[in-house]
Amino acid sequence: MSESSTESSITEGSLARPLFTLAWPIVVTQLLQVAYNIADTIWLGRTAEPAAAVGAISLAFPLIFLLLSVGGGFTVAGSTLVAQYTGAGGEESAGKAAGQTLAFVTVLAVFLGALGYVTTDPLLALLPADEETAAAVIPLAADYMRVFFLGTPFLFGFFVFSALMRGYGNTRTPMRVMFVTVVLNVVLDPFFIFGWSVFPAMGVEGAAVATLISRVVATGIGLYVLFGLHVGPDIRVEHLSLELDWVKKIVDIGAPSALEQSTSALAMITLTAMVVTFAPPVVAAYGLGNRLISLVFLPAMGLGRATNTMVGQNLGAEKPERAERAVKLAAGVGAGVMFGVALVALAFAEPIVGVFIESTTADAVETLREAAQYLRIRTVEFAFIGVLQVLLGAYRGAGNTKTALAFSLTALWIGRVPMVYYLAFIAGLGSTGIWIGMALGNVVGAIAAAAWFTRGTWKRSVVDTAAPDMGGQAVDGED
After folding, report:
1. N or C: which end of the chain has fewer CB within 10 A?
2. Could you tell me which residues come within 8 angstroms of residue 227 by beta carbon, excluding any fewer than 6 positions away?
3. d(CA 253, CA 395)
4. How far apart are CA 322 and CA 315, in angstroms?
5. How far is residue 174 CA from its own chain's centroid?
6. 8 Å CB contact between 363 and 280
7. Cα–Cα distance between 48 and 189 in angstroms, integer?
8. Residue 379, SS3?
9. pLDDT of 186-202, one tens digit each?
10. Contact 324, 36 (CB under 8 A)
11. Residue 352 CA to chain centroid, in angstroms?
């Protein structure tokens, strides 16, 4: 393994060091991932109609995520299998699991990309937008979505590469690949959006083209790393020929995660459908606020995904108590870090949102006011985000993806969607009700997930650690 000191200590010695060493590159990688969206938002916020342009990608993202989430859920299976086989010492099986996951997700990506392309207009037609939003925003969102769906296989390419490397214990290589492609995207954005040099001015569609080109580069580098270097699971070309037994394992573990992400996307669409009944400044504030809060998620997400690897490898090595200690450590760190982030966001909400839109039109001023209020209200949930992401990572690392699904549904469909509807429309709080309802989901989900964690029934491996190089047999790891 390339990061030998880190990887050898995942299953022995100090817990804090490997957890931190795994987590910080994931945080940076996700920060760079968000930089794709932030760059688009900043450049589009400088177009002639910033509220419409930013609102367009705000509408497009949940619809795109709905289809991408299906394939993305199956990368969790690859990460879990690679982690547990690596912890059990099964290098051959880890490589086979990685190859089978890569092939399966690629086939799925081609299908989902084609499906998304042909259903762009029907999907957007589902949103009950007001007349102004329908005329100014939805056509731009359609342009963005079509380009995005054309590049779906390349978008998935990096996702699966990153998941497989994470399961192996190497989180730095995906970080480096992401850095190269983000720089490329930031450079390309203004050329395609504004028509610099010989390029045509494409506006919102140009932002999607820049992202697509960057993702093609990311996938190419990722494939070279997986097949040409020895820094991750040992994948060989023959591992790409799909086998029914492996596909079943991937589906058994990945389907609940795919369902989890899909229902998250449906929740986002449902929430977006409520938001678009408001004027464009509220729609834009919702999108801008969500992009800012996606930055806030980064420390929690990094710890959650590091916990996934820590739990997977330690359960593979038959060390469940060490896995539990890692989860508790990560949850405590996550809550503390996120509380600190909340204090900063609360104190500097206006200057933070002011970075993204420089126009002084009435719509832009109203967008900034609403976005600042949104950010301040959601600081209430930040510490709970840290706890929930770590616990979901623990359940996924153990292969208990149905458990992770249950608490994700709790956060979204019990704690968030009904409360947004009630507060915004029934209680008559308007946009303030949206912001408050959005904040409640992770609070409810974290409390429920923590209560379940204390039962200890999640600490079971989903691979046969007695004979790892025979491919293992999936067992019932759910409770």
Report:
1. C
2. 235, 236, 237
3. 11
4. 9
5. 15
6. yes
7. 16
8. helix
9. 899 999 999 998 888 89
10. no
11. 22
C-alpha to C-alpha distance for 41 and 211, rounded to whole angstroms: 12
Residues of the chain with pLDDT under 50: 1-8, 467-479
Which residue's entry shows tokens 């500097």?
348
Q: Which residues contact 91 (CB under 8 A, 6 or more apart)?
A: 85, 233, 234, 469
Place of tokens 């699966």: 160
For the chain, the domains span: 11-460
pLDDT tens per residue across span 225-251 = 999 888 999 899 999 999 999 999 999
Region of 169 on the Ramachandran plot (φ > 0 left; ψ -120 to 50 alpha; else beta): left
In sequence order, what are the residues at sequence separation of 6 or more whose Cβ sits closer than 8 angstroms to the Cβ of residue 196? 190
Give the list of residues 6+ apart from residue 424 with CB closer than 8 angstroms, or none: 274, 430, 431, 433, 434, 437
**What is the C-alpha radius of gyration for the chain, rounded to an integer number of angstroms?**
22
Q: Give 3-state DSSP helix, strand, coil % of the chain, rounded to 5.
A: 80, 0, 20
Q: What does the block give as tokens for 187?
A: 């450079």
